[in-house]
Amino acid sequence: MMKPRRTPGWAACCSPLSLILGVASFTVLVLAYNPEQDQVNGLAVPARWDGGSVVWNLNPTVTGSHVAAGANVQPALTNAFNAWQNASLTVGGQSQKVVNLSISLGQVSSSLPTQPNVTDCLNVVGFVDMSTKDFPTGVIAFTAISTVTPNPGQTPPFQYSCSGGAMPTCRLLSCIVDTDIEFNPSDQFTTTQPTPSGAFDIQTIATHEIGHMLGLDHSGLGEAVMYPYGDTGVSGSATLSVDDAAGIAFLYPAASFAQITGTLAGKITLQGSGIFAAHVVAIDANTGDAVLDGLTAPDGTYSLVGLPPGTYNVLVLPLAGLYHLTNFGGWSCGYDEAANAPPCCDPAAPACNGTPVPNPTNFTGRFF
Q: DSSP secondary structure string, 213-254?
């Protein structure tokens, strides 16, 4: 039996030094939110959990980390997972659940791994990964993700192996098969409300990382849970923005998602040529709120999927400054085993011949 291709990566680790994998082709998935993606036969394919069913496990050990004494991390994490499982959109004054997603807690054990293992098919949340290489400067927390895709000539369903001996089946072109979330043990975390200055709220950080675990990359909207920056002293919240809810519903849609939302599509050009990676934002014409955002494909086209009914203006911005390609683990380039292909390569790598956008220097917050 041919082995499927397995792609491990710190794709959701959002520090300036996070792993940016190379270009397989310039085909990219363009949506109003940014899912993690794999390249399959030259096409961008969103990675997701087969069947929308996820089991997470908790290593509750906090000894040696900077989690506040007496903090009970499990309820905060449960609230964070529930936010995604119950994602909803408000249409006509009515809140409607738009996801078909099942999340459950498995093991709670201090014997679970304390560092990411992307081959064991366990999804572990932990607080005591002491490996400094896992936490480059500025990283609050990260999510290690492993996906599998069929080999050339293969079609789903296909089996893949876990290090424990299990042989699950993937029925998609790209299945998420293992994720591990680790909080930086050098940072101060708390469940106390309001959040003390100098500490990060566990529920807030966890809600963001779980978005990665479920298949979302970053959003360019400051009010979105999937915005790539966080700060200390911010009181806990597991409230999803429209951008977050639409993104998770695209990956795991309930029937209501297509029934109550629409799509805004177009093309951004400059002097007749399409603009790649322009930041496109749908603005509610009545309230002025930024509702959904996305990036343009190499030909300048975009498609903002999952907008509630309404009248919208489209704001187009260059992808530069605070929000840029280095905020993405895999969206802009897809995954490629021959990493460091321009234009989305590590600027420190000798093989990089592209012109990477510099990291932001004008924000006091932290990456996560």
A: HHTB---S-TTSTT-SEE-TTPPP--PPPHHHHHHHHHHSB-
Q: What is the DSSP letter of 352?
A: -
- Tens-place pLDDT, residues 269-328: 989 998 887 899 999 999 999 999 988 887 889 999 999 999 999 999 887 766 666 676
Q: Closest Cα to residue 334, out of 44, 48, 118, 47?
A: 44
* pTM of the predicted structure, to 2 decimals: 0.85
Asked, for residue 323, whether it belongs to a domain, the answer is no
Q: What is the pLDDT of residue 16?
A: 23
> Alpha carbon of 288 to those of 6, 104, 281, 285: distances in Å?
43, 38, 11, 6
Q: DSSP alpha helices (H): ranges in the chain?
A: 73-85, 202-214, 242-251, 255-260
Within-domain flag for 322: no
In a domain, residue 70? The reply is yes
201 domain residue, yes or no: yes
pLDDT tens per residue across span 169-203: 999 999 999 999 999 999 999 999 899 999 999 99
Distance CA 31, CA 359 (A): 24
Specify whether the CB–CB gap between 65 and 125 falls below 8 A. no
Domain count along the chain: 1
* Nearest CA among 255, 311, 261 for reference residue 90: 261
